[in-house]
Design brief:
Distance between the termini: 41 Å
Helix content: 25-40%
Number of helices: 16
Number of strands: 27
Structural class: alpha/beta
Largest sheet: 9 strands, mixed
Strand order of the largest sheet: 2-1-11-10-12-13-14-15-16
Strand content: 25-35%
Oligomer: single chain
Length: 520
């Protein structure tokens, strides 16, 4: 196959050379300028010693330069290594060393990590500064200077099965795994996104979620392929998202449910000008019923696009069809994550890999051109995930008669108490509807009699008077008695989130399972 990540940028510059490619911090660059800067930066990376197949890390907040690096690394022949901006220094060092990265592009937000990186990542030969102004250290090359002093390089022409990037998973079950995605994987995903999201030349996409994560990155290539416009905020801020939508007439943004919940808390949200926004796209985790209900109440005519995916799928596996994005039409199907993407084959199977009857809970398995090439340097883990030619996702779901998929839970988050399977998301949805609840996470903790018991961690809204007994009484009215939390913890701090905006249940579980050898 001849898919090329760089093709999307070349086409955008060809068909809309003078149109806005990026809007960032007062800077506007056209598609022809963007392509030229990428080709020059690629020449600069090659001059620094980046050879075909070399891994180049990107550790930065969202910006137009991040987008340029996303394309310049493969243009130079390298393999990009987007690094999660919320990870610890030790995790970042592990990833850089595991991937044997020879260069790292970083901005001012991460300069403080340089002493440790220099000491503990000896294979890093070059550091490139993506921030504004002069680099803060002598051994940092300036991105803008690389662009200014180099002539455009010819595209290295990496394509098809060549690895375009290594994207590390969160590491919730041990050390992070590097997901190898090819040029073909990312291009196939972009074509799906254009088809299902509806991107075109009029699309203006706001990078509000971290660009290092494929929740946002799914649109990086798609918007470029459609020759739309990218705009950016450095990192998610609910009020700033709303301001950017109004200022730049943003048409599309992808958020995770926790981010949408934060936006709903912004004072005056009901009257803010969001006319340009065509739809709210959300994914990465199921949206709590209370959040969805409040969003629909505020914007009854808004389209709500739910999708499901994971890094190993480049990342999108399912999406609501266009006809099911209006609440009044979709009804309960708005709670589904849609149907399989156009070039994806998807089944819900039992433990033996046999497809289960519709309406029965099982594990989602997927095959098609979006499925990863494997885990970097982990052949055993790759083989375990790829069984019989299908990628086993670890997500429990139900499929209805029309192919709509309803995510039930992560299999590892399922609680088994007294032999009963309890899905944490069902309990969370019930508690989230309780007045005064801002956030809730449900986990399984050890129980000498039942094996595990249901434990709820609840963050009340400011000023709300909530008790553990009240939470249990509320849940008892909504769900079966054996699913009701046997213990409830109230806390004032927000729940810990990953860079993808998912609640870090492994962190919440860890204190309870120390020495138990499971469920961490």
């Amino acid at each position: 196959m001849n898919e090329r990540l760089t093709q999307s940028l070349k086409r955008a510059a060809q068909v809309r050379p003078d149109a806005s490619a990026t809007l960032c911090a007062g800077r506007r660059r056209s598609w022809s300028e963007c392509k030229d800067r990428v080709a020059r930066a690629a020449a600069g990376l090659q001059a620094l010693g980046v050879a075909p197949g070399d891994r180049v890390g990107i550790l930065a907040l969202n910006s137009d330069r991040y987008l340029e690096a996303y394309y310049a690394v493969p243009w130079a022949g390298g393999v990009m290594l987007p690094l999660n901006t919320r990870l610890t220094a030790s995790d970042l060092e592990y990833m850089l060393n595991d991937a044997e990265a020879v260069a790292l592009c970083l901005d001012e937000a991460f300069v403080h990590l340089l002493p440790g990186l220099r000491e503990r990542c000896p294979q890093l030969r070059q550091l490139v500064y993506l921030g504004d102004g002069a680099p803060p250290a002598d051994d940092l090359a300036s991105w803008d200077e690389l662009v200014a002093r180099n002539q455009p390089a010819a595209d290295a022409d990496r394509h098809g099965e060549d690895i375009a990037g290594i994207f590390y998973t969160g590491g919730s079950t041990g050390r992070p795994k590097g997901v190898m995605l090819s040029h073909g994987n990312l291009v196939a995903n972009a074509v799906n996104a254009i088809t299902m999201i509806g991107y075109d030349t009029s699309s203006i996409f706001l990078h509000a979620a971290p660009m290092c994560h494929l929740t946002d990155g799914m649109s990086t290539v798609a918007i470029t392929m459609a020759a739309g416009t990218h705009t950016f905020i450095p990192k998610f801020d609910a009020a700033q998202v709303l301001q950017q939508i109004a200022e730049h007439k943003v048409t599309n943004v992808t958020l995770v449910p926790t981010m949408i919940a934060m936006m709903l808390e912004v004072p005056g949200i009901e009257t803010m000008p969001l006319e340009s926004l065509r739809q709210f796209m959300f994914g990465s985790a199921p949206m709590p019923d209370a959040t969805l209900q409040r969003a629909v109440k505020i914007w009854p005519d808004m389209r709500f696009l739910h999708g499901w995916g994971m890094t190993e799928l480049s990342p999108i596996g399912t999406m609501l069809p266009h006809s099911m994005r209006k609440p009044g039409i979709a009804g309960d199907r708005l709670r589904s994550c849609g149907q399989a993407m156009p070039n994806v084959e998807l089944q819900v199977v039992d433990e033996s890999g046999v497809e289960v009857p519709r309406g029965t809970t099982g594990e989602i398995v997927v095959r098609g051109p979006i499925v990863m090439k494997g885990y970097w340097k982990k052949p055993a883990e790759t083989a375990a995930a790829m069984q019989g030619g299908w990628f086993h996702t670890g997500d429990a779901a139900v499929m209805d008669q029309d192919g709509y998929v309803y995510i039930v839970d992560r299999l590892k988050d399922m609680i088994i108490s007294g032999g009963e399977n309890i899905y944490s998301t069902e309990v969370e949805n019930a508690i989230s509807l309780m007045p005064g609840v801002a956030e809730v996470a449900v986990i399984g903790i050890p129980d000498d009699k039942w094996g595990e018991r249901v434990h709820a961690i609840v963050v009340p809204q400011a000023g709300a008077a909530i008790t553990a007994d009240a939470v249990q009484a509320w849940a008892r009215e909504k769900i079966a008695g054996y699913k009701v939390p046997r213990s409830v913890e109230l806390r004032s701090d927000r729940l810990p989130l990953s860079g993808a905006g998912k609640v870090l249940k492994n962190e919440l579980r860890a204190p309870y399972w120390v020495g138990r050898g499971q469920k961490i």
